[in-house]
Write a structure and sequence with these properties.
The chain is α/β, with parallel strands linked by helices and 126 residues long. It contains five helices and four strands. The chain has a four-stranded parallel β-sheet with strand order 1-4-2-3, sandwiched between helices. α3 crosses α4.
Length: 126
């Protein structure tokens, strides 16, 4: 069995990442994970280039408008959620595409975040 592959597509807004990713996903028969931090939140269409249903062309997209704008959702939360989802998806798919312009979020999935020590309440209160 071949090891699964994660293809990452990143770059600035409005360069065609979504259409390229959708075309590639159609060719490979795989899903897409968004690593665009602004696209995570419902009701944030302006300035976020959230792909429409037509633009998604029937390809399953994950992490698109799945959180309320009132929810706290950090890069650490995304890393945990994305890795857990990838583990499930790789049981079915040999390839998954991660696409977005939030490079910190992409990097968290690909390379992991640094571990931070616990901070005592006394330090937090100062």
């Amino acid at each position: 069995m071949k090891p699964p592959k994660l293809i990452t597509i990143s770059g600035p807004t409005a360069i065609g990442k979504t259409s390229f990713a959708v075309g590639l996903a159609k060719l490979l028969g795989c899903p897409i994970l968004s690593s665009d931090a602004r696209q995570f939140f419902k009701k944030m269409q302006s300035g976020t280039a959230v792909p429409t249903a037509d633009e998604q062309q029937g390809i399953k997209h994950h992490f698109i408008q799945h959180k309320s704008i009132h929810d706290s959702y950090s890069v650490g939360d995304f890393e945990k959620d994305a890795i857990a989802l990838l583990e499930r998806l790789f049981k079915t798919f040999d390839v998954v595409i991660l696409v977005g312009g939030s490079n910190l979020y992409t990097d968290a999935v690909v390379n992991g975040l640094d571990a931070f020590p616990d901070v005592s309440d006394a330090v937090s209160e100062t």
